Amino acid sequence: MADDVSSIPVIAVTAAVGAVVLLIVLLCTISRGDKDDKNQEDRVMMLWSTKEFSQKEHKFIRLNVDLDSATSVKFSPDSRALVASLANGNKIRVFRLGKKDDGSGNVGVAGTMDFPQVSPAEIINVGISSKGTFIMAGLADTHLIIYDLKGEQQEVINTHQMKNYFSALSPCGRFVASSGFTPDVKIWEVSGTPGELKVTRAMELKGHNSGVSNFSFNGDSSRVATVSKDGTWKLWDTDVRYSQGQDAKLLFTGSVSLPGPNLIAISPDGRTVAISGDSSVVFWDTVTQSESVILQDLHSGPITALQFNTSNHYLVTAGDKHLQVLHNVPGYYSTIADLEQREKKATSAGMRERILEQIKEARQTLSNILGESNEEVVTKKDRAS
């Protein structure tokens, strides 16, 4: 989508409050191709609108990162700010977004705020709670740092995982989690108000035989997908009474058919899981607990990030100099299968009618994507099942 981009390490997706448009932010290090100075770089962030994904041209908004480059980025809940970690400064910078003064109506950086550096350890990921109460920084040692929105350090969590591989903040804004050298994912609940935040252990996802390289929450944080160096991935039910000591429930274990290291993403509705390995992606259907399809060689180099958008319609992958936006076709088949099961169990005519309408809409969308009739879509789905 952007031919002059040499690397795209990170993706962040948000649904703008009060708007239909979804935004995707890419953190890019772009080489100018200056043979006399190979270290010369542009430090930028680029914003695309998913509303234009079906169009031939994909315009983007370019945001500069002054005197540094970003390695991780997240939107604020109202989509009016970006929280990013800086490579050289090894600290967090908040970018406030606003319309430019040139009358173009384009979005630009209206102001920035840097948090103080609190550790020499590299920041591997950042997050901001969906309630806008705190910001998380995951470090490459064994620590997670919890800040308030003014950059004041509130809590320091020691994960005791020898080395953190990945960290994340759940979409519901209640949990922070970490995985690392040890074969588990540890999850904590962050509660309270700004200035009076409290961190308590919530649950641990145990069962892998080696370090967990990556994990992903679904939209309501009721499911977590994990992928490990042991060559397996697992799906967990995290909608449990953790405050009463109940741990997450293992729902399914699958084998990873792609070489590691692997990244994993679960769709917001929890019906689809995507796992990357090298330059390829494999889709899994969590309803049938089966592998759906493998897409080979999406990039010329390893995939550095993958994420579903908030509507479940797209999977976005980043790697080499390209961003690939994929229709979540396996997700539509999974949705249809799930809805058909629910239709059989419907307890009222009204409920059955609503489910049948949803099935019809999903089949129509799928036929539009594939360029097939509804009958062909149904037949193809029946063959696949």
Automatic annotation (TrEMBL):
Gene Ontology terms describing biological process: endoplasmic reticulum unfolded protein response
Keyword Transmembrane helix: yes
Protein name (record): Uncharacterized protein
One cellular component term from this protein's GO annotations in UniProt: endoplasmic reticulum
Residue ranges of WD repeats: 205-237
Keyword Membrane recorded: yes
Transmembrane segments: 6-30
Domain of life: Eukaryota
InterPro entries given in the database record: WBSCR13, WD40/YVTN_repeat-like_dom_sf, WD40_repeat_dom_sf, WD40_rpt
A Pfam family the protein falls into: WD40
Record's signal peptide: none
Keyword set, alphabetical order: Membrane, Transmembrane, Transmembrane helix, WD repeat
